[in-house]
Design brief:
Layout: H1 7-62, H2 67-74, H3 78-100, H4 105-134, H5 137-219, H6 222-225, H7 232-280, H8 282-298, H9 303-330, E1 338-340, H10 342-352, H11 354-359, E2 362-367, E3 375-377, H12 379-397, E4 401-412, E5 415-424, H13 431-434, H14 452-462, E6 466-471, E7 477-484
Parallel strand pairs: 2-4
Antiparallel strand pairs: 1-3, 4-5, 5-7, 6-7
Helix pairs in contact: 1-3, 1-5, 2-3, 4-5, 5-7, 7-9, 8-9, 10-12, 12-14
Length: about 500
């Protein structure tokens, strides 16, 4: 029957048994803790309180002994007053005992019997006092003997009442001990079952998993290649992981090669297109712009004609910008590096875009504790980076918005970096668009070329820096630029 069960079923069955025993043991343990708590509460709330009342009742009775004899000896009425106080204490303890013994017949019987005998005792005791006071000493002495007999009888009843609660506490203790013994045996049985189940699981793993794995490794000669590797599962795991890693690496390399080929094809096309456009378009464009400038100064145009003229001029500038972007992307200019603070370039870019920012009704705020340290950078190229990002932000926000620029110095694993963050309050980017914004020719604009942010990425990388974008739909977009801070020729950084 066992041989007909599959390996997976065997493992699951043994694991279910172990899980069942563990859960059952936990439930029993929790139940036992509640049971012990219940027993302790029973002892504390009922029997222990009753025992304390019984002990205080016995003590109150003992405290009444001897006051009449003392009064007979010296005739001081103070002894009778103290006797009255102790009688009152006894009655209070007796009332408490009556209150807490309402649910137990045996306790009730003893307390009522103590109450009855105590009433007889104090009656006779009062008669003894009366006889002594009136001078009937012999009659008082006889009654005094009866009072002593009643006193010891009462004392025995109080002791019996106390022992009754002692016995109940002992019974609860024995019951708790008995339950503890049962729980121990159950725990021992559970441990044995868990041990046997674990041993069964071990045998299944050895004969159904480890030995077949060893044979598989021997057949594939993996053990011979791994030298003294004795852990078959580890050897097999290493082989499988190696295959997975090789597969992932090959897939990644193929993807990179595919992307590089696509980019190379694009670059070749862009280079050819840019070279042709440089000669075929730019020279005529220059002549057209000069003629437009000359006409704009000499002609007396109406408002409608002036509007048409401005549109033509803007479109010509747009075409010139497209041609310039193609040229820059295909043949990037050589960087002219110099020591300067990126904060200066940020201020220059803001100053350059003053009129455009006003036209979009966009506010720009700069948060810095001080000017950033000097870095090696081409100010014109770096300015193009900031201008490009801010223009994109203005176009994304449309009208009315804010651009917040924050600067700080950060310590990376590779050293200190100057960090410039440009955050806008625009609509943000989806994850799909965010992953593609730095790709050449990718654009979401109707009239865009898709080269602006590609040029930004290239300029930052040529400066040895990094650029990242953080954005989500409806939460704006933040461009994070990091430029390495290197020591200048004199070994120091210049802080502005």
């Amino acid at each position: 029957m066992w041989e007909q069960i599959g390996l997976r079923t065997r493992v699951y069955l043994i694991l279910c048994i172990l899980l069942f025993i563990t859960i059952t043991g936990g439930i029993i343990t929790v139940w036992y803790t509640f049971r012990i708590d219940s027993l302790l509460n029973s002892v504390l709330n009922t029997h222990l309180a009753s025992y304390q009342v019984a002990e205080s009742l016995e003590k109150a009775l003992i405290n009444q002994k001897g006051f009449v004899s003392y009064y007979f000896m010296d005739g001081d009425p103070e002894w009778l007053r103290e006797l009255g106080e102790h009688r009152q204490i006894f009655k209070e303890r007796l009332a408490t005992a009556l209150a807490i013994s309402e649910n137990t017949k045996e306790e009730r019987r003893l307390v009522e019997e103590i109450d009855s005998e105590y009433n007889n005792y104090i009656t006779i005791k009062d008669q003894v006092i009366s006889h002594y006071t009136s001078g009937q000493r012999e009659t008082g002495s006889e009654l005094h003997k009866q009072a002593r007999a009643l006193y010891f009888q009462l004392l025995n009843l109080c002791e019996e009442y106390k022992q009754l609660h002692v016995q109940k506490i002992q019974n609860i203790k024995s019951k708790s001990y008995s339950q503890s013994v049962k729980l121990r045996w159950m725990a021992i049985a559970g441990v044995m079952v868990v041990f046997l189940s674990g041993a069964s699981l071990l045998l299944v793993l050895i004969f159904q998993v480890l030995i077949p794995v060893r044979k598989l490794i021997q057949e594939t000669e993996s053990l011979g290649k791994t030298g003294e590797q004795k852990d078959e599962v580890k050897a097999l795991s290493m082989g499988v992981h190696k295959l997975i890693e090789d597969s992932d690496q090959i897939h990644t390399e193929l993807e990179k090669s595919r992307e590089n080929l696509l980019q190379a094809e694009k670059m070749v096309l862009v280079g050819k297109l840019a070279a042709g456009m440089a000669h075929s378009i730019r020279n005529p464009m220059t002549s057209v712009k000069m003629r437009l400038f000359s006409l704009g100064r000499s002609l007396n145009l109406s408002a409608t004609q002036k509007e048409d003229f401005d549109v033509i001029s803007d479109e010509m500038r747009h075409i010139d910008t497209i041609v310039q972007n193609f040229l820059e992307f295909s043949r990037p200019p050589k960087l002219v590096m110099q020591w300067m603070s990126p904060s200066v370039v940020v201020d220059l870019a803001i100053q350059l875009l003053t009129h455009r920012l006003k036209s979009y009704d966009v506010d720009v705020s700069v948060h810095r504790q001080g000017m950033l340290p000097d870095v090696q950078a081409d100010p014109e190229q770096l300015k193009e980076v900031f201008v490009n990002i801010m223009v994109n932000a203005c176009e994304a926000m449309g009208s009315r918005g804010s651009i917040i620029i924050s600067e700080e110095v950060s310590t990376e694993s590779s050293g200190k970096t100057a960090v410039i963050k440009l955050r806008d309050t625009g609509p943000g980017l989806s994850q799909e668009i965010k992953d593609k914004i730095f790709q050449p020719f990718f654009t979401t604009k109707d009239e865009g070329t898709g080269l602006g942010l590609s040029i930004v990425l290239r300029i930052i990388e040529e400066h040895g820096g990094w650029i990242d974008v953080v954005s989500a739909k409806g939460e704006g977009t933040t461009f994070i630029i990091k430029l390495p801070i290197k020591e200048s020729g004199n070994g120091n950084h210049i802080d502005h």
